[in-house]
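Board notes (copied after class):
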Amino acid sequence: MVSLRKNILMMSDPFYYQSIEKIVSAEFSDRGSKFIAYAYPVATVEVFKESLNEVKKLHPKASHYCFAYRMGHDGNVYRVSDAGEPSGSAGRPILGQIDARQLTHTLVIVVRYFGGTLLGVPGLIHAYKSSASMALQLTPVLRKKIEVNYELQFDYTVMNEVMMIVKKFSCTVLRHEQQLFSVFEIGVPKSDETEVLRILEEIPGVELKKKATPR
C-alpha cells in the first residue's frame, strides 16, 4: 500500500501536492475505550516531535499514543506507530486514512483511554481508522504548489526588477539579508521554474544558486 501510494502521488500532478489546512480533533468511543484523534499539518520531523509531545502533555494519563504521518511533496517520507497496540492495528489504519485523501505533510495522532474491555485486532483497526477519518473530515484540503528553493544575490539597484518577478510568479520569500549585496532565498513554483530562472538570469548582476530539492 505504501509503494502504491507513492506512485499515485508522483503521477497525479508533478507541480502540486495536497495537505490539510489546520489542526483539528475528533473523538470516537467503543465499549468504554475513548479514541481522540488529532490531525496536524506538518512539514518536518521536528514539528512532528513537537506535536506528539504536545498531545502527550494534554493527555498524560492516556494508555496509548498511536500515530502516522506522511511528508514530502511526493509522499516519500512516512512513519507509523502502534505504540504498544497489536502490530498493524493502529498506525497502518491511521496512515490509510491519510492516503485515502491523497494527503502529504499530514500527521494524525490518536490517543486512547482504555475502557476495560479488549476490542480485539478488528475492533482496534476500526476504532483507529474511524477516529482518524473523523478528524480529517473536519479540515479543508489545500492544494499547494511544489516549490524549488533558490538563493539570489544581487545589487540593490536591481531590487525592483527582482521583486517584480518574485511577485508575478508568486514565489515565496523564505529569507532576506541586506549586506553589501541583497541576498534572498525564495521558493520558486516548480511549474514556473524554467521561466523564472530565464528572466532572472537576464537581469545584470543576479547570481542564482539552487538550495534544495522541491518541497
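Comment from the instructor: Residues 2-143 form a domain with the Ribosomal Protein S5; domain 2 fold (CATH 3.30.230.30). Residues 24 and 39 are 5 Å apart (CA to CA).
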